[in-house]
């Protein structure tokens, strides 16, 4: 997730204070990983330095003055380019899961035991996502679906790998 570009996108929607940006980010994009206020304001500072946002007005607040941020043409151009570029297809071929299986085999440890533990962890996470999906709104359900589909693919890979462990063990140890 690109925090700077996401904040720029929120600013393209409407000029906002840092507090409002944090709230909107956390509501739509920060599930399980909300932004800290420090990260919001540090990011806004860099965006201002780089000419992608400007401060339109400053209002007195209970603490520091409240600054309203507005996206510039340069910031809007960057958001537009970002929204039209495809995301790099995932997953990458060298994942941690794959590395742990191969290293287990190289070191004479049980890759099957590791894969059983991983399967259990995946199933536990899938249950949690299913609960979120049942109790949440449409945004929650769509995010849960995304995670569930990726976990289902991992489970399929785990089952395929378990079925091929003997052959993979020979190939890894003969390399």
TrEMBL record:
SUPFAM superfamilies: Winged helix' DNA-binding domain (SSF46785). Residues 7-79 form the Transcription regulator PadR N-terminal domain. It holds the Pfam family PadR. This is PadR family transcriptional regulator. The lineage of its organism: Bacteria, Bacillati, Actinomycetota, Actinomycetes, Micromonosporales. InterPro entries: Tscrpt_reg_PadR_N (IPR005149), WH-like_DNA-bd_sf (IPR036388), WH_DNA-bd_sf (IPR036390). It comes from the Bacteria.
């Amino acid at each position: 997730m690109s925090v700077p570009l996401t904040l720029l996108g929120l600013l393209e929607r409407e000029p906002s204070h840092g507090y409002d940006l944090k709230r909107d980010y956390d509501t739509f994009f920060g599930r399980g990983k909300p932004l800290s206020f420090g990260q919001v304001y540090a990011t806004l500072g860099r965006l201002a330095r780089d000419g992608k946002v400007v401060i339109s007005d400053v209002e007195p607040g209970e603490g520091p003055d409240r600054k309203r941020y507005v996206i510039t043409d340069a910031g809007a151009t960057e958001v537009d380019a970002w929204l039209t570029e495809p995301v790099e297809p995932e997953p990458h071929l060298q994942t941690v899961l794959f590395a742990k299986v191969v290293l287990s085999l190289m070191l004479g440890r049980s890759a099957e035991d590791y894969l059983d533990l991983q399967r259990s962890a995946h199933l536990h996470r899938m249950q949690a996502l299913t609960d979120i999906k049942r109790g949440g709104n449409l945004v929650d359900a769509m995010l849960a679906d995304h995670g569930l589909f990726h976990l289902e693919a991992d489970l399929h890979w785990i089952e395929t790998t378990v079925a091929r462990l003997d052959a993979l063990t020979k190939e890894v140890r003969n390399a």
